[in-house]
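Project outcomes to date are best conveyed with an example. Our students and postdoctoral researchers have been running inverse folding experiments weekly, and each run begins with a structure described purely in tokens. The record below, which covers 269 residues, was selected by the lab manager from last quarter's runs and is presented without edits.
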């Protein structure tokens, strides 16, 4: 057998590779999906708002489920690893504890969806013909684990309480990975107790957001608008506040390490 093997691999982002490695070494291994695309389509076709499809706990990994209407389907604890959900309607769907690592979410409607305790690592939201961003408005992401590039996404009114969007500094063998929410709409979002350490929030809209007791260590808040936000007990140690707006915020006197923030003198209070 010839030792020469043509290299047909395309460049892959480090965080995507990490997700694949995590799955590869998982005790359950990589399995084939439990259902075919056609079976999922048939189940959704029979469903209604009153009697939604039950796909909870199923392995639907790596399927192309784009442009489907899930009609508030039950997808709790479903494996959607690398699943294509481009332009699919998941508004109001139950995705509690679901695995969405590496999922394709271009133009996906996830407004009002229940994503509590779910995992969203290395989401794919850019590329291909669809330029529309996913919509997370009003979604429940409480306790979710998120490490993804989500610049400009709509998370207005979303519940991100206790969500972990921060860098795991102990697991940086493949380079630092962080959540990018630059320019994102987080107006009215609940980020109480959220871990946002080292996250990118430049020019994000945090108007009226609840940031009480959030961890913003080394977060980049350049140009972010926190007008009317609640920052009670939030930790701003080494956060970059260049151009950030803190007008009419509550709890400013009780937030932590504001004196250790970078470019505090360039923020507007």
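After processing, the design step wrote out the following sequence:
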């Amino acid at each position: 057998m010839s030792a020469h093997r043509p290299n047909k691999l395309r460049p892959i982002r480090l965080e995507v590779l990490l997700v694949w490695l995590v799955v590869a070494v998982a005790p359950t291994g990589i399995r084939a999906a439990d259902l075919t695309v056609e079976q999922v389509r048939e189940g959704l076709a029979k469903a209604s708002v009153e009697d939604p499809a039950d796909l909870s706990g199923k392995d639907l990994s790596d399927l192309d489920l784009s442009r489907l209407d899930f009609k508030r389907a039950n997808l709790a604890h479903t494996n959607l690893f690398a699943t294509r959900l481009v332009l699919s309607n998941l508004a109001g769907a139950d995705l509690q504890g679901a695995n969405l690592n590496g999922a394709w979410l271009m133009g996906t409607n996830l407004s009002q969806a229940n994503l509590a305790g779910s995992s969203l690592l290395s989401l794919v939201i850019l590329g291909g013909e669809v330029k529309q961003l996913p919509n997370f408005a009003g979604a429940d992401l409480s306790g979710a684990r998120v490490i993804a590039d989500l610049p400009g996404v709509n998370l207005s009114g979303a519940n991100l309480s206790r969500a972990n969007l921060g860098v795991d500094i102990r697991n940086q063998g493949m380079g630092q990975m962080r959540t990018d929410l630059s320019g994102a709409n987080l107006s009215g979002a609940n980020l109480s107790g959220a871990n946002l350490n080292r996250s990118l929030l430049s020019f994000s809209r945090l108007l009226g957001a609840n940031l009480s007791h959030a961890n913003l260590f080394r977060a980049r808040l350049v140009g972010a608008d926190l007008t009317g936000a609640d920052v009670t007990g939030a930790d701003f140690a080494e956060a970059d506040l260049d151009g950030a707006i803190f007008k009419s915020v509550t709890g400013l006197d009780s937030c932590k390490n504001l004196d250790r923030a970078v470019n505090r003198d360039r923020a507007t209070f």
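The helical segments are 14-24, 37-46. Confidence is low (pLDDT under 50) at residues 1-30. The training component of this project remains on track.
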